[in-house]
Design goal:
By secondary structure, the protein is an alpha/beta fold. The chain has 11 helices and 8 strands.
Length: 226
């Protein structure tokens, strides 16, 4: 069976924004007199839903989560202006598009802002559909992805999910899709490997996978891990 759809995550998968996120978080931590974080620590601690990450660092009785999330985005928006796509992203998206593979994005990121980034990088036309959160608080992806699959008539068994976080694996399991995780994004490789999902070094691996070379993407990721 061939893969005919790729379900993409955005932040840390297609967009190389980890450094922007770390810088934005350090601005926020500094503002509230908290110890600064490092890239390594951030990638170890980040979680979805993102409120769980903030809970590790802040007391919500003193500072409401919505205020913290808004403050983070102020800094992140400044730093992300210099962020680029992940290595191999543009070439991979073009290859899949020209190969007739459907591509969709389901992201925890604010949808209107996400569309702006896609236009900025000139890649918006590669995607049949884009689903993002309605605000900046990283709302759930699973329900929106399931609704999008139903709307577009997407077959989960013929879909490859690509992400950079444990939650992307959880999403693929809920939907019944194949899954690969890329360990150079928001979450550490150690955490990703704990899922048992197929791990690939970078997005260039998708060329061979969709063409049917390399490790099989037709095996359920739980079975693959055994």
């Amino acid at each position: 069976m061939q893969i005919d759809t790729v379900l993409w995550d955005w932040n840390g998968t297609l967009l190389d924004d980890v450094d922007a996120a770390v810088s934005g978080m350090n601005d926020l931590l500094s503002r509230y007199g908290k110890p600064l974080t490092s890239r390594q620590e951030y990638r170890e601690m980040i979680d979805i839903p993102v409120i769980n990450y903030y809970r590790k660092l802040f007391d919500f009785e003193q500072t409401p989560f919505a205020e913290l999330a808004s403050g983070f985005m102020e800094g992140y928006d400044r730093y992300v202006q210099s962020a680029d796509l992940m290595r191999g992203a543009r070439e991979t998206l073009k290859f899949l598009h020209e190969s007739g593979v459907r591509q969709i994005i389901v992201s925890s990121f604010h949808e209107a802002t996400l569309h702006g980034y896609l236009r900025r990088f000139g890649i918006e036309d590669y995607f049949e559909a884009v689903s993002g959160a309605g605000n900046y608080i990283s709302e759930g992806k699973i329900e929106r992805a399931r609704a999008l699959f139903k709307k577009l008539g997407i077959c989960p068994e013929r879909t490859l999910s690509v992400g950079d976080m444990v939650h992307d694996y959880e999403l693929s399991q809920e939907l019944g899709t194949q899954c690969i995780l890329i360990p150079n994004g928001q979450q550490s490789e150690e955490k990703l490997r704990m899922t048992g999902a197929q791990i690939e070094k970078d997005l260039n691996a998708i060329f061979g996978l969709v063409r049917g070379r390399g490790k099989s993407i037709l095996t359920n990721s739980k079975e693959f891990a055994q």
